[in-house]
Amino acid sequence: AVIAHHLAKEVDFFSIGTNDLTQYTLAVDRGNELISHLYNPMSPSVLGLIKQVIDASHAEGKWTGMCGELAGDERATLLLLGMGLDEFSMSAISIPRIKKIIRNTNFEDVKALAAQALAQPTAQDLMNCVNKFIEEKTLC
């Protein structure tokens, strides 16, 4: 993710695996009971890396997709859409719910949400920002 701007010149697309990205970014094994509570894909550091990859790919005319639990998360969908994610890969059971959210969302609104949320210093502040947006827009 850190060198995405270099890699984007050489690849056709990016596919982000959020489970591994989160684990290695936060140095937290979600399978380890002692530290798994620290595993949070909605961490500003994880989302910041995702945004870097999306921006780098778009700068080179490429697309970015995502697989992993985050792609099927309702709250994350709003942020990821606002960050410019091009493709969401998720379990089949999540598709109708996520599709409804995407169809009922104004892109300019979620772009503004993503910018505001990514500027938050903590995961809790970021989630408060997202939750406020959802309440105001009566989504999810």
UniProtKB/TrEMBL annotation:
GO terms for molecular function: metal ion binding; transferase activity, transferring phosphorus-containing groups. Keywords: Metal-binding. Pfam families: PEP-utilizers_C. Residues 1-106 form the PEP-utilising enzyme C-terminal domain. The keyword Cytoplasm does not apply. SUPFAM superfamilies: Phosphoenolpyruvate/pyruvate domain. The keyword Metal-binding applies. This is Phosphoenolpyruvate--protein phosphotransferase.
